[in-house]
Amino acid sequence: MYDEKVVKKAKAIHAEIYGKNPTTVAYAPGRIEVLGNHTDYNAGTTFSCAINMGHCFCISASDKPGVRLTAGDLKETTEFDPSNGDALEKKFQWANYVKGVMHYLRDFDVEINNVDCTFLGSIPMGAGLSSSAALEVATAYAVLAYTGKEIDKIDIAKIGQRAEHEFAGCSCGLLDQFSSIYGVHHGLIHSDFRTLETYPVKLPDDVVFLMINPNVKHALAESPYNARRKSCEKAAAQLNALVDYEVSALRDIPFKDFEAHKDKIDPEAAQRATHVVGEIYRVEEGVKLLKEGELEAFGQYLYDSHETSRTSFENSCAELDIVVEAAREAGALGARLSGGGWGGSAIALVHADQADAVCAKIIKICKTKGFEPTAETIIPSAGATVVE
User: Would the pTM count as exceeding 0.90?
Assistant: First the structure.
């Protein structure tokens, strides 16, 4: 399943700009993070799902050398040489995600040149739904289809991550790319970022997620994201010196051992690690709860996750805190910020037949607090695909 409207519009814009229809079209969805906040770069585990919004990427042949790239929503076009990994785009920074993917695909003998490209997304920018990873994955799928090449899905995810690191300046983990690639209809994706294994976890048929966007600016490269990552690495290194087993990442220390030793390490590193270690515990316990049909207990883990985001990791913001408390008051099973934080969106787990009422109450409560969020029902969706 893909967003047919955005695919149709992207193809039309491509034809309008370049005077010909695209010959290759790929689509990749965004994601919501359900549990496992900031665990991916700590070799941990996550729950996420691909969503019914994403990016479409179109390609057609050109007589001109290099790559011409159009951002469909902006109707802006830039040109670049995909073999040159040094010249980052400054005026059109959105092009760096695409340029990074095309550049690193060359390491797998996948080269593209003399092409016109267009991308268009239905993911609200800055909503914390991983529009950048969806663009990276859609780009890779389109380029591979256009060139008739295949590479492993894990390598596609790593290429997107590398583009994010080197071309966009954000030291992200693999959660976003994995979610976009491995998404399943009406199910969660359990990802293990040590083994790089994923498997689907079915959701009950009578629940959905609400995505509530308070419309707070969200840009991870400008946030404390990278500093938080360094704090987690410091915590792991210091804990490693205190226990009789190896702690190469926060994944390695059980929750009980962390509680016993956290007061012996750098206070700020311990504070940040409290959230991450707790998240890894909640994900693994959450697998059992979903299997047993314990939805209320699973939902409480979402509330617990947001609380340590707020107090320990400090990656929430006032608007997201209000949304989560409004969701609790409105009767949601659980709610938390979703994604890197410092803006972006919150998600709420609700029974499907109560979704409209819960959503309306959340918005009503937020209005009394001085802002009006937007909200949508999220349909857990299939992963990236080549449309044509």
Answer: no
